[in-house]
Structures are given as structure tokens and as C-alpha cells.
């Protein structure tokens, strides 16, 4: 249903380093960037190799706030190991833990996920939802 989504970030370099690391275990890479240090309207796009962006981060130095309670973005993971790698990479690059990797039986019998908050306060998740 969705084509892509964008997040406003306060520090494009910090956020790009965070998303480069956190999304790599899930198979998502930087598919484009428009980085011009010191200039407005900088952005970076992420998606599957050879495809377009599904997530873009855009410089918003005036302190754009992330969406409020109840909003989060979930990324599909290829397996449980990738979920754990996403979580570890996110924490190593400035993210905050919001739920360690593990089964979430309340969400379904095969739901395995990890939750983090990015450096600007966006809530993100990696999920693998299939029999192991």
C-alpha cells in the first residue's frame, strides 16, 4: 500500500550513519543521497539494492518532532538473526533500546521482533514473521 515514507532528522550525518548500520542486516541499503554539508534540503534514501527508496531521511534542523505515541515503522527482516543484528547495530550507532530481540506471541505465533528509538526519537522495529 505504501510507496515510501520520510522522517525529518536534526543531524543528517548522524542519522545516515545510524540507518546505514541498522538497515544493512535487513538487506536495505542507501540507494541515493543528496548530501551537501552546510546546505538545506539534504536527504538520504534507503531501500532494497537495485530498487527505489522506501525510507528517506531529510534534514530538518529546526527540530521537527517525530510522530507521537502509537506511530512506529516496522521493517521486514529476512530471518531472526537479522532482527538481532538490526538491534545491535542500532544500539551501537546511537539508538535506544525499546524492546530486545525476541518472540512476541501476543502479535502472532511466529512474530519475532526488536524495537529501537532512533537518535531523533522515531520508533522503529525489525520483524520476522514466519515459521523458523
Structure description:
The structure is a single chain. The chain is α/β, with parallel strands linked by helices and 132 residues long. The chain contains 2 helices and 8 strands. The chain has a 4-stranded mixed β-sheet with strand order 1-4-3-2, covered by helices on one side. β7 and β8 (123-129) form a beta hairpin. The model has no long low-confidence stretch (mean pLDDT 94).
**Average residue-wise pLDDT:** 94
The SS-based structural class is: alpha/beta
Principal-axis shape: globular
SSE string: EHEEEEHEEE
Number of helices: 2
Radius of gyration of CA atoms, rounded to a whole number: 15 Å
Give the strand line-up of the largest sheet. Answer: 1-4-3-2
Please give the alpha-carbon distance between the first and last residues: 26 Å
Q: Which percent range describes the beta-strand content?
A: 35-45%
For this entry, give a set of tags.
single chain; 132 residues; alpha/beta; 4-stranded mixed beta sheet; 2 helices; globular
Task: Please outline the helices and strands.
Elements: E1 5-9, H1 12-23, E2 28-34, E3 43-48, E4 55-59, E5 73-76, H2 80-92, E6 96-103, E7 111-117, E8 123-129
Parallel strand pairs: 1-4, 5-8
Antiparallel strand pairs: 2-3, 3-4, 6-7, 7-8
Helix pairs in contact: 1-2
What's a quick, concise take on this entry?
This protein has 132 residues and is α/β, with parallel strands linked by helices.
Amino acid at each position: 500500500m505504501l510507496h515510501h515514507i520520510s522522517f525529518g532528522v536534526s543531524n543528517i550525518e548522524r542519522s545516515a550513519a545510524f540507518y546505514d548500520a541498522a538497515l544493512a542486516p535487513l538487506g536495505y541499503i542507501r540507494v541515493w543521497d543528496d548530501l551537501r554539508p552546510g546546505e538545506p534540503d539534504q536527504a538520504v534514501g534507503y531501500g532494497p539494492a537495485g530498487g527505489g527508496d522506501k525510507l528517506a531521511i531529510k534534514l530538518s534542523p529546526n527540530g521537527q518532532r517525530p510522530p507521537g505515541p502509537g506511530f512506529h515503522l516496522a521493517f521486514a527482516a529476512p530471518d531472526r538473526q537479522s532482527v538481532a543484528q538490526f538491534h545491535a547495530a542500532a544500539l551501537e550507532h546511537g539508538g535506544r533500546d525499546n524492546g530486545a530481540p525476541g518472540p512476541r506471541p501476543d502479535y502472532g505465533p511466529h512474530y519475532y521482533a526488536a524495537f529501537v528509538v532512533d537518535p531523533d526519537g522515531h520508533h522503529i522495529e525489525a520483524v520476522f514473521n514466519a515459521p523458523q
